[in-house]
Amino acid sequence: MSKTKKFDIHVHSYYSDGINSPAELVSYAKKLGLDGIAITDHNEIKGTLEAMKFQEDGFLVIPGIEISAREGHIIALGISEVIPGRLSAEETVKRIHELGGIAIAAHPYDFFRGGVGDLVLKINFDAVEVENGHTVHSKKKMLDFAKKNNLPISGGSDAHCLEELGVVIIEIPEKYESPIDAIKNRDLQVVSKMSKIKILKNFLKRRFKDSKKILQSEDE
To answer: What percentage of the chain reaches a pLDDT higher than 90?
Structure first.
């Protein structure tokens, strides 16, 4: 079996609505055995730029941001500047590409959290999230949808605290330095590391538990 690299490419820090600092997220991702993460704060680039200071050989930090376009949320990977929110989804994707990044439709059919819906069939997205750590729809259903419509796929935990980090990851062949290359070549697998029930429980308790305790217990 060929070796793979593991990445969580949808993570939030306290620069938007997450709990933890970029340094804490990078540290815990390393302890989980991930090969890298992308911090994709809402309409904010500071978290990902700070996280890149902790990058080292064997662990990659992919610059990213989650942009609130008018029709829904779009993840940009591979860019290091802010694209304004409230632009159309089409214009947002265009600007991401102009900056040399890739555009991923985040939780596209999540009505409560701003998915772009059927625009995934009309706009030139580089990938569509078929699994998201905060969405309870069936991954198989989304995979079947993507296959039927020849859509490239992706996935991520959408972590807002350490407990959620790594619950949904992508695995890419070792030959790729970055998941961006694997996404462009449609050469990856989306892997769920936790049951939907456990993910939902984590989501519900997120605001009531200090996830910094995990870091403390890991160091004991």
So the answer is: 80
Q: Which residues pair with 60 in a beta bridge?
A: 36
Cβ burial of 166 (10 Å; 0-12, 13-18, 19+) is buried
The pTM of this model reads 0.91
Whole-angstrom Cα distance, residue 48 to residue 63?
5
Q: Where are the alpha helices (DSSP H) in the chain?
A: 22-31, 46-51, 89-98, 139-148, 179-184, 196-205, 212-219
CATH code, 95: 3.20.20.140
Cβ proximity of 75 and 106 under 8 Å: yes
**What phi, psi does 150 have (nearest 5°)?**
55, 45
Question: What pLDDT, in 10s, does the model give residues 146-167?
Answer: 999 999 999 999 999 998 999 9
Q: Domain range holding 67?
A: 4-219
